[in-house]
Amino acid sequence: SELGTYAKVDNSQFRQLKAATPGSYTFILQATKEVPNRTLHPKRKTIGLRVPDNKIALALLAELGEPLLSCTLMLPEDSEPLTDPYEIRDRLEHSVDLVIDGGWCGTEPTTVIDMTDGVELVREGKGDKSLFGL
Asked: CB-based contacts of 85: which residues, under 8 Å, 6+ apart?
């Protein structure tokens, strides 16, 4: 596992992460010095880790053999994230190199769990918080 290269986790945390991924969770973890500063929370030196239950994303990760930096696709003029692949293509095909149509991904956000100091629910979302005793 490459996780230890980018985030500081103990054995208990690793087991919890392994049991919940891939899944609808984002985990806040203490970053290691290997993580570029521009990708860190500026004051807390943390990262968000997400391993989605999505065949395309998992295939990309397997092929790359390293983490992939991503974000929710929300354009400045929009109030909601873009999730429809046809709309994404129509609006962005001339601004990006590639659009992969993986179908509609839904709008329910992930459950965010902060594991920097224990286990704390930051946002309740699609992932089952009871896996973490919350």
From this structure: 99, 101, 102, 103, 104
Supply the CATH number for residue 65's domain.
3.90.870.10
Q: What is the pTM of this model?
A: 0.83
Residues in Cβ contact with 77 at an 8 Å cutoff, skipping those fewer than 6 apart: none
Is 8 contained in some domain? Answer: yes
Q: What is the pLDDT of residues 74-123, one digit of tens each?
A: 899 999 888 888 899 999 989 999 888 888 877 788 999 999 999 999 99
Position 102 in a domain: no
- Residue 91 phi, psi dihedral angles, 5° rounding: -85, -25
Query: Has residue 97 been placed in a domain?
Result: no
Query: Among all chains, which residue has been given the structure tokens 């004051």?
Result: 43
Assigned domain for 124 exists:
yes
The three-state secondary structure class of 97 is: coil
Question: How many structural domains does the chain have?
Answer: 1
Contact 87, 70 (CB under 8 A): no
